[in-house]
Each structure stands twice: as structure tokens, then as C-alpha cells.
Design a protein that fits this description.
Layout lengths: L15 E14 L7 E3 L5 E8 L4 E8 L2 E7 L7 E2 L4 E6 L4 E6 L3 H45 L4 H5 L2 H13 L5 H5 L2 H181 L1
Antiparallel strand pairs: 1-2, 1-3, 1-8, 3-4, 4-5, 6-7, 7-8
């Protein structure tokens, strides 16, 4: 299948007026692979909808300098598809290609898609009106053609030929002059009839002129309808060729649809992976928060432990002091015990001596 090439220079007729414009990066499908996009503009260019009021046609046109990179006529069969948040595409069977537009925002893409749907619906309504008009014009053409065949009207058929109009005079002159009385009687009456027929003849001539003008007008209309019929036949042949091209393109469209399905599956897998990664990030964030809380608790416990250690050192110092004091007290008690024991021994000795002294005194008393 041969690929149509766009003209290098596009001249927009003055009857076409831009009705909506936007800026976008323009792409075309690779004619060889039918998969990859080929950029046709190095930067964002103006993409406009044009309306031809004469032909009632909507077109999408974009120029890169003086070069036409988009020249697509909108038809009811076209569909504009959003393939991402900022990219859309449509297939043009006349140009045998697929156009793609990359917008700066999702809002611009949605606006362009809404206008595409609006002008597509307008093209469909215009096509229906054109078909109705063709049906209405084809009906009177058949009726006028049938009337021409059945009763063709000519001046001669209404007024008669020159020979026919001369026949009555020849008949009157051929009558014999042998009976003048019979011819003289109806002379006045024949004059009245002649005037009546002359008035009828004038009326018929007027009617004939009107019918002739109507016939000429009908003939002109027939020629015009024939021209329109030929144009419609050419359009039908062109549409038939387009249908053939669309059937050829349908296989390519199936490949594009398969590729699109694969891309959608890949996007879904990537979205699922992204969702899992986001969940893992949330889990890691939670773990980090928990680790921070544990670190704060650890710092608090470390500080408390240091305080406890300091207090423990103080207590150890106090304990050591108490131990020293206890040991000193024990030594003093031991010394006191020793002194008390010695004192008791001395006291026992003194008591024993006193006892002996009492006994001796008692004995002395008894002896005296």
C-alpha cells in the first residue's frame, strides 16, 4: 500500500475560518512499523480547527512555517482517543496515517477532544442533511424526466405548423362560387368564431410561452441534477475506495490495538509495582518512626542510668563512710569491752578482798 505524502505548502482558502486553536507537539505514526511515533515538529506548534462554510466541512490544520504537517478533514467515522493524560491521537484514512498530539496539560487535551467530538457531530449532521437533500432532488428529476417523455411540449404541437394553419384558408378558397347564398349567410357568424379562435390562439400562445420557459428551466434543472448525480457517483466511488483502504488499515488497527493492550497491561503492572513500592515506603517510614521512638527511649534510659550510676557512687561513698564509722565504732566498743572486762576483773578482785576482809572482821569480832 502506498503512503500518501502531505503537501509541502498548504494554502487555506479564504472561505475557511479558524474556530479553535491550541498549541501542541505533532507526531505521525511510522508508516513502516505502524508502531513508533515520528515527531513532525521540533517544538510546539499551533493546531487549529477550520470550518469551510461553502462545503460545510471541518478540518484540522497545523503549519510548521510554510509546511503543512496536519491537513485532516473530520468525518463522522473518526475517533479521537486519549492514550495518556497529555497525549491523544486519531486516524485519517484519506492521508493513510495516524496523527498524535502532545499537550502541555490535561486541560488542553480535554478541550481539544471536546471540540473534536463537537465538530465530528456537526459533520455527521451535515452529511445527513446532504443525503436528505440528494434524495429530495432525485425525486423531482425523475418526475420531470417522465413528463418530458410522455408529453413533450413544443410551439408547433400547440399552435400547429404553418401548413396546418393555412389549411382552413385553402379550404375556403377551394369551395365553388356556384352557391353564393349559402356562403353569405354564415359570414357574420364565421367572423365571430374567427375572433373567438384568435383570442383562444393568443391565450394558447401565452400558455405555450409559459410552458416553454418551464420546460427550459426543467431541462436546465435536469442537467444540473445529472451533474450532481455524477458528482455523487464520484463521491460514492471515492467512499468505496476509502472503505477498501479502511479494510486494509483495519489489520494495522488490530496490531495497534494489540500493542495498546500490551501497553495497558504494562502500565497496570507498573502501577501495581508502584503501589507495592509505596506501601513498602510507608512501612519503612513507620519503622523509621518506631526506631526514632526507640532511640528516644534509649537516650532517656541512658540518661536515667547515668543518674543512677552517679547516685550509686554517692551511695557507695556513703556506705564506705558508714563502714569506716562502723569499724571505728566496733573498735571503740571492743576497747570499751576490754576496759570493762579489766574493770570487772579488778572489781572482782576488790570484792574478793572485801569478802575476805569481812570474814576476817567477823572472825575478829567473834574472837573478841
Amino acid at each position: 500500500m502506498s503512503t500518501r505524502r502531505l503537501p509541502k505548502v498548504l494554502i487555506v482558502p479564504t472561505r475557511e475560518q479558524p474556530i479553535f486553536s491550541t498549541r501542541a507537539h505533532v507526531f505521525q505514526i511510522d508508516p513502516n512499523t505502524k508502531k513508533n511515533w515520528v515527531p513532525t515538529s521540533k517544538h510546539a506548534v499551533t493546531v487549529s480547527y477550520f470550518y469551510d462554510s461553502t462545503r460545510n466541512v471541518y478540518r484540522i490544520i497545523s503549519l510548521d512555517g510554510s509546511k503543512a504537517i496536519i491537513n485532516s478533514t473530520i468525518t463522522p467515522n473518526m475517533t479521537f482517543t486519549k492514550t495518556s493524560q497529555k497525549f491523544g491521537q486519531w486516524a485519517d484514512s484519506r492521508a493513510n496515517t495516524v496523527y498524535g498530539l502532545g499537550f502541555s496539560s490535561e486541560h488542553h487535551l480535554s478541550k481539544f477532544a471536546d471540540k473534536f467530538q463537537e465538530f465530528k457531530e456537526a459533520a455527521r449532521l451535515a452529511k445527513e442533511k446532504s443525503q436528505e437533500k440528494m434524495e429530495l432532488t432525485s425525486t423531482p428529476s425523475q418526475e420531470s424526466a417522465g413528463g418530458d417523455i410522455q408529453s413533450p411540449l413544443t410551439p408547433e404541437s400547440i399552435n400547429g405548423t404553418d401548413d396546418e394553419r393555412a389549411t382552413p384558408e385553402v379550404t375556403q378558397n377551394s369551395e365553388p362560387r356556384a352557391e353564393p347564398t349559402q356562403n353569405a349567410l354564415p359570414f357574420t357568424h364565421s367572423s365571430t368564431i374567427s375572433k373567438h379562435w384568435e383570442a383562444e390562439l393568443a391565450t394558447l400562445k401565452g400558455n405555450n410561452a409559459k410552458l416553454t420557459a418551464a420546460l427550459l428551466e426543467s431541462t436546465a434543472n435536469v442537467k444540473q441534477w445529472k451533474q450532481q448525480l455524477a458528482a455523487y457517483q464520484e463521491e460514492a466511488e471515492r467512499l468505496h475506495k476509502r472503505v477498501t483502504e479502511l479494510e486494509c488499515v483495519s489489520s494495522q488497527a488490530n496490531a495497534v490495538h494489540t500493542h495498546k493492550t500490551e501497553l495497558n497491561q504494562t502500565i497496570q503492572e507498573l502501577e501495581s509495582t508502584l503501589k507495592k513500592k509505596e506501601e513498602e515506603i510507608e512501612r519503612l517510614k513507620q519503622e523509621i518512626e518506631n526506631a526514632r521512638e526507640l532511640q528516644a527511649q534509649r537516650d532517656s534510659l541512658t540518661q536515667k542510668l547515668q543518674e543512677v550510676e552517679i547516685r550509686n557512687k554517692d551511695l557507695e561513698g556513703q556506705l564506705s563512710d558508714l563502714e569506716q564509722r562502723l569499724e571505728k565504732s566496733q573498735n571503740e566498743q571492743e576497747a570499751f569491752r576490754n576496759n570493762l572486762k579489766t574493770l570487772l576483773e579488778i572489781l572482782d578482785g576488790k570484792i574478793f578482798e572485801l569478802t575476805e576482809l569481812r570474814d576476817n572482821l567477823a572472825k575478829l569480832i567473834e574472837c573478841s
